[in-house]
Amino acid sequence: MVSRATSLDIIVGVDGSSTSDSAVRWAAHEARMRKVPLVLVHVVVTPAWGPAPWLLSTAPLPLPAEEDRALDESGRKIIADAIKIVEDNSHGALPQIKSELFYSVPVSTLVDLSKKAQLAVVGSRGQHALHRLLLGSVSTGLVHHAHCPVAVIHDEIPSAPDRSKLPVVVGVDGSPASELATEIAFDEASRRGVDLVALHAWSDADVSGVSSIEWSAQQAIPQETLAERLAGWRERYPDVVVHPRIAWDKPARHLLDESESAQLVVVGSHGRGGFTGMLLGSVSTAVVQAARVPVIVARRH
């Protein structure tokens, strides 16, 4: 079944790896929550790509005729297996499933599809040595170039009695990207019926030499900033219980610490920088690479 993504679709890249399977399960749950179609996308890898198949490209590359049948069958089996994962984890609420099979470059294909999607989902790594490089690069490429928010799903999720009850975590710095991240985080927490932890870091630098007395005296400023950034969203989502967190420095480290007791982290694609901002370009990259829970990087259409 092949059909184009619509403006309401959630797209997920699949390659048969364990992280891809995790991405499919997470994306299916997200599609059920949002009551939107799920589009499973597989991009066939061919030798015709040359040494750097993860680079952005403007057009599909040719598929050698002798490999057409085998690669086509392999790609369709990967999609069929992904559909079965969705069906086996539907719990009686199966989302509408669509699929796409491409012979092209993964990043450019998914970036192009993201123009008409509300969320793109991808695993952090691939199946074996080559695919680990490809999918790692695909997730990085999407985080930097997608036209919609990107969810990166990891395979090593920390154990917890019931992760569905854990909070959503968001990094807040007041930049436009951070504002979008806050909007996404409130919406995700509301849909899940869980609390929201909102972290604001006063500095992106290492200021470990600053005395605790000085930090205590300065706390009122970031607390006021965070309260202002959250006020409107709290009014819009009165059902979400918010836990403000203020950190003096190292936002990535604090977000990763919070992620260990969370089910989802949301960060902006880039930040304001400076002493009062979180450098969310570097922060989002660090969190996407190191977090063990799903991470949504907020990107605007």
From TrEMBL:
Q: Which residues form the UspA domain?
A: 10-154, 168-299
Which GO BP terms, alphabetically? Answer: response to hypoxia
Question: Origin, by domain of life?
Answer: Bacteria
Family affiliation: Belongs to the universal stress protein A family.
Quote the protein name from its UniProt record.
Answer: Universal stress protein UspA
